[in-house]
Amino acid sequence: MSEPLVRTEVRGRVGVARLNRPRAYNALSPELMRELLAVLRAWDQDDAIGAMVITGNEKVFAAGADVKAMSQADAVEMLRSGYIELFDGLSTIRKPLIAAVAGWALGGGLELALACDMIVAAENAVFGQPEINLGIIPGAGGTQRLARTLGKYLTMEMVLNDRRLRADEAARFGLVNRVVPTETYLDEAIALAQAIAARAPLAVRLGKEAVNFAFESTLQAGLQHERRLFYLLFATEDQTEGMRAFLEKREPHWQGR
Ligand code: HXC
Question: Is 183 in the active site?
Fold first, then answer.
């Protein structure tokens, strides 16, 4: 049997998906993206999983879309292939997604990390949008998500002139949650995911939805949306349990109901 393009492992309540095309620097072929999405969707439906981690290996998270495959494509093929829509699939995942990035996160690789909810970076991580070197621009959200995170000027430099950010720079500019030693980056990302996965599942789910809505709306619409989700949580058993446990000075037992 051939090697899976995505290796999976479950640790406690965390699903870990490892991109597994090491010889192609984890270039994100359509087949790999389809496999990744299928794995994430299955975990999203599984009550035993509370959060997910996407990672590569110690040298490379992902070096982008597969240039070999793209080099022969024309505009109509790219349009018809639905390849980029596979990246949109990540935004339909309701549980928290953490990118654990070591080494290169370039082009579509950075866009994949940006589509996650949090990024844990190893000290050797390098982030960039080198598409300009190929005569193209990012196509799976890079220009939009970087501009919202880093602002216009640094994003322009990354998109127009292949400016790359080392892990420490990425942290300084707010692109990653934390920088950790390369030897332990995956354990640290999993520990963060475990901590979130141990929390009240419905509050985590609606919290993620509320924060993501901030990127889609005006402040007023966002505040209204947040308020509706806040009220909704008062219909859950977990809210009753969480507040009771606090008052009784004990740990809460979350049911996800
Ligand atoms: C296909 C790739 C690849 C990619 C690396 N490889 N990146 N194959 N697509 N994106 C392959 C190389 O061809 C080579 O295979 C092997 O991986 C190792 O790469 P080297 O270049 O020999 O390694 P190194 O000198 O260490 O340089 C590493 C690197 C460089 C800096 C990551 O490979 C690089 O610049 N890669 C391309 C990065 C890039 O342009 N990404 C954007 C792609 S466009 P062989 O068989 O020769 O050993 C994009 C658009 C997204 O992502 C649009 C929406 C999804």
Answer: no
* 131 carries an active-site annotation: yes
Give the count of alpha carbons within 13 A of 25, CB side only: 17
Q: What mean pLDDT is predicted for residues 231-242?
A: 98
Nearest of 28, 23, 133, 112 to residue 70 by alpha carbon: 28
Fold category of 6-197 in CATH: 2-enoyl-CoA Hydratase; Chain A, domain 1 (3.90.226)
The domain spans of the chain are 6-197, 201-247
Pick the CATH number of 201-247 from 3.40.50.2300, 3.40.50.150, 3.20.20.70, 1.10.12.10: 1.10.12.10
Q: Is there a shared CATH topology between the 6-197 domain and the 201-247 domain?
A: no
Residues lining ligand 1, Cβ inside 6 A? 24-25, 27, 63-68, 84, 87, 104, 106-108, 111, 130-131, 133-134, 138-140
Q: Quickly state the pLDDT bin for 1 (edges 50, 70, 90).
A: low
Residue pLDDT, tens place only, 153-170: 999 999 999 999 999 999
How far apart, in whole angstroms, are the C-alpha atoms of residue 147 and residue 183? 31
State yes or no: pLDDT of 239 exceeds 90. yes
Is residue 33's pLDDT more than 70?
A: yes
Round to whole Å and give the CA distance between 4 and 72: 25
66 pLDDT tier (thresholds 50, 70, 90):
very high
Neighbouring residues of 242: CB distance < 8 A, sequence distance ≥ 6: 200, 203, 252, 254
